[in-house]
Records
---
Amino acid sequence: MWSRNNAVPALAAAAGLLVCASIALIFFWIPEDADQGISQKIFYFHVPIALTAYACFGWGALKAFLHLWRRPPGADLESYVAIHQGVIFGALTLITGSIWARASWGVWWAWSSEQLVLFLVLFLFYSAYFMLRFSVEPGPARANLCAVYALFGVVLIPISFLAIRLANDFIHPTVFTSQGPQMAGSMFFTFCVAWAAILTLAAALYHIELAGKRLDVSLRELRERLA
Amino acid sequence: MTQGQYLAAAYLVVFAVVLAYMLIIGLKLVRLQREVGQIARLAAERDPAPEAGTERAPERQEIGVG
């Protein structure tokens, strides 16, 4: 019978296949960018990782909202794991973006770029979530505090996402406009495969980490009962 | 550094972080496995299993029906 645990190996296998496919497409199929050269290929992992970080923060905020509204068991843990994933992908976004900026424009960081600074603010906001979580005793009070904090952070996601369009700076040229993606069909296809790969990878890691955390909680309860 | 080296560095960082994450999860699983073993031993000490050849007292009594 199909259960939630069956999803983990299936997701992990799909993530592995999609990551291999996207690497093959990036390095052996799509042409080099005429303007930026080979360093433009960072785009195919950098942007999907950034979008996945937004998705993880959004998922964490949704679970936090559900925790406050309906109080389903485990929503607090799910919110925490999603935010943890978001911080990992957020760190990767900052690192890969910084390398790309250095390769293409000769700077590691530009404080004048609203997009970069807003993403850093979002990343630091959710990094502080862990300071809050681990400074309060486990229990309903901690779950409620963390849920409210996670919900506040979600406001920053659309601001950070739209900043790229509002700022119009030299670091982030707008690729996706109302006229569609401003790139060749092969490039857009590769971008979609890479995004699917990163999203599937994030989903697999989310379920693996969540299963570990649930097992940890069950073992702690069992140990307390036996003590 | 050349453009190709920057590209390699960006992709290597991603794979290094994912590998480190998987290593941490693997170490956590080893710890959980050890804890399961400890809890199983604790449970066995509290409620020892019957020795081979000896039977436990039946939990339900036989009753006549009909």
---
Amino acid sequence: MSALNELTLAEARDGLKARSFSARELTQAHVDAIAEARALNAYLVETPERALAMADASDARLAAGEGGPLEGLPLGIKDLFCTEGVATTAASRILEGFTPHYESRVSENLWRDGAVMLGKLNLDEFAMGSSNETSAYGDVISPWRRNGSDAAIVPGGSSGGSAAAVAARLCLGATATDTGGSIRQPAAFTGTVGIKPTYGRCSRWGIVAFASSLDQAGPIARTVRDSAILLGSMAGHDPRDTTSVDIAVPDFEAAVSRGVKGLTIGIPREYRVEGMPAEIQALWDRGAEWLKAAGATIREISLPHTKLALPAYYIVAPAEASSNLARYDGVRYGLRVPGKDIVSMYENTRAAGFGREVKRRIMIGTYVLSAGYYDAYYVRAQKIRTLIKRDFETAYAEGVDAILTPATPSAAFGIGEKASADPVEMYLNDVFTVTVNMAGLPGIAMPAGLDAQGLPLGLQLIGRPFDEETLFAAGQVIEEAAGVLARPKVWWA
Amino acid sequence: MSVDAQTVRRIAHLARIAVSEEEVAPLQGELNAILAFVEQLGAVDVTGVEPMTSVTPMRMKRREDAITEGDRAADIVANAPETEDGYFLVPKVVE
Amino acid sequence: MTAPVNPKKLIKGGLHDWEVVIGMEIHAQVTSRSKLFSGAATAFGAEPNAHVSLVDAAMPGMLPVINEECVAQAVRTGLGLKARINLRSVFDRKNYFYPDLPQGYQISQYKDPIVGEGEVLVDLPEGESITVGIERLHLEQDAGKSLHDQSPTQSFVDLNRSGVALMEIVSRPDLRSSEEARAYVTKLRTILRYLGTCDGDMEKGNLRADVNVSVRRPGEPLGTRCEIKNVNSIRFIGQAIETEARRQIAILEDGGRIGQETRLFDPGKGETRSMRSKEEAHDYRYFPDPDLLPLEFDQAFVDGLAAGLPELPDAKKARFVSDFGLSPYDAGVLVAERASADYYEAVAKGRDGKLAANWVINELFGRLNKEGKGIEETPVSAAQLGAIVDLIVEGTISGKIAKDLFEIVWSEGGDPRAVVEERGMKQVTDTGAIEAAVDAIIAGNPDKVAQAKEKPTLLGWFVGQTMKATGGKANPAAVNALLKAKLGIE
Ligand SMILES: [Mg+2]
Ligand SMILES: [Zn+2]
């Protein structure tokens, strides 16, 4: 039998049920793997004692024939989720020393279902970034390397720690969040599966806010099935989040094997962007072929406002962030840098506590909301959001069940490769994912192949509101068609 | 639209982020790059389009008027940089 | 405003007469058990940070959930102000940094408030009344409290108030004197208390006013206004306006100009001064709170609340005038507090309304005032006072005895009828006994009897003597009649 941390989440679950191994053994395998993989800088905090104690409790429940749907399964938690008694930093210095006295609703759901917490995963500071290079606690290194190169590669972001940890077998699955592509882009970069559910499917309560109208939690896992199992636990109505939706959580795992026969899959022509690498186009075409072969109808569609999504996002998200991050003021928690008076205390604290990208976004957000600019920027961007959403509604009204697109415009890049002075170059990473957040829709990214240099490439499926089931069904078809892909060679241990 | 150095300083102050003189020029460049990128939105005809208020159409749920929280002052101030007698302490504010 | 200028309301400057123009923003704390967006208690006087939830302290990842009762209270208040209720309103964030503002923004309503235009009818002392326009009412969060005198270098922050629901009620600039302004706040407070939507306790800061004051020469366009923040008593509102108007007049008559600014009234020094902390130009960057959906309800919700509203002071006053024959002034006094009006109605029910009003206003209110007590603390119940009135009307006791009886009931309690019985306070109507007393007095004062024929006013002296002799119990009408007959006065 291979090492226990090599199993998929579904396999591990079934093995525990069959008592083939214990939760403690499974957890210990992950604890050991994490200890050997510090070079990846995926975990900000490791909680091995807590993990083993939780595993023992799981073993007791399993022995008693009890056990929840995730009983004994070790997971990593993105450090944007507040965890009771465990430091939560959002990868920012400004939250230095902060230990929540509460548990985020999503992580609480996971513990309720029996999952085991391995620790807190690195991310871009306040989830602002697409490469995990903005963390105050250092870059996350992807377990992947280009063929014949030992140059460090980014895992994507902002859920770079989650994606890297899942890809490197440092957990069976991880929580993540997605505001503009932060689940799907790192999943695509690391050959993992990530789903951003419909806005309102998961509670935002206890997740450090970036942009409230766009933020959604979701899982990153190694298979479509694993992601379906995890989302089933994470999702659910929460009366403490007014934007969470009071509808039943379907049996996502059951949807995985549904197939795509009879479904209509849209191929939006506007995603065929200028300068798209040939291998991305080929991957996309291949994906459409796979779905067609499995019985779906492929139809070209138009989402005319697509190219406006990214610029509109860079107004809406920073605007909300500038306000959401005002609470980090050195008064009630986190970092405080003294000053000659209260104003300079604020200014010094926030100057020292926030990194460059976060400051940049706060400042852009402050600017677009400020007197005289609000209508020209913010209101206009929210109108464009309406247009973007309408595009999707039209496509769905015309009988499209899901939309297939590339997940990213390229494979992962090297650490430091996009550190140019123009932040927009980095922002373009999210060009295919951000539309989904702007429209509040569900989107899944799953691996579909490797590029010429041996790095993973992913496809994205976009669904109707609250129809994650179709995404799991179609995602499974792509996963199976793509076959067993190469996986990162262990160079870090 | 683009921002000048003075605007960068004003925005930084509004956002309560200390910015040194050396930081102003690079920030100005970065902010202008972003503003140039979003400029294309200005060309879109948005007449008659409602700005989005909620991406998922639903009625806002309400709470009943019950006391369900509180009496945890120790937790509330537990993470504070400076406290005394259950209060948060800040540099003196002059009104 | 096109209303004619009332010369009596002008302020005399050194050079000209000036008209003062006042508009107010009243912050009224909504009566509710828990806060606007959290389940922490609103009760006053707790230990620091005891009534604070994770939401109120703006812990990372916390989200607001609206309190349905606060929404209902705002709608009730809107109905009480005869205002337009907006079936859809929006919560916005008002962004600024302050240590008692944990989120770094106040959740408020900016463009789309829950309540639109309305009006308040304000009675002035000389029987005059004015209608003050209400521009809007919106819901918003209160801030915490900073204590500045605990340490020379630090301020202490308590978030117990943070997130408590406030109604900000914005008037039009329809007020023209400090007296009108005071009357307006008094009336608004009365309405809120009737509705039960705000207790109006100004000492606790549950009702406070931002007063916008400007002056102009009559007929000229509006002058530049200054906002006097957070004035927390009706008396101070009057003083602040007077002080500020005179300050502005002095500047203008000196050829100066008024700069729009925020000021603070210092009652100790009797002056307003510029608020340094608010001096900086604000840019609040309002935008709709993305954590909250628009607040929507249907007309049926409003109608349901309207059906449950109590009778409001204006209606009650009109009814007291028509049903009990009261003067508008007396009716106004009685309806100023709902508890007083209820008390009065209990006394007046089935009795002479005017007599009841006299007793409630003159005797009871007078006595309560003297002791600094509110109607809730009255030791004389409406039933007791009603019994006293009954005893007068039956002729069992005289008005004068009734006052003694009131005193006894006030300090010792008891059933007034039983007290009269036990203490022999019954009025003597037996003419025989009165006649004996009268005869004795006439016999003892022959000189006065002789004078009385020429000087009929002496009758009063004889009445007094008779009452004294009978211990005040003689029926005054009988005494009068007998004396007149025996002294031969017409
Ligand atoms: Mg105001
Ligand atoms: Zn206000």
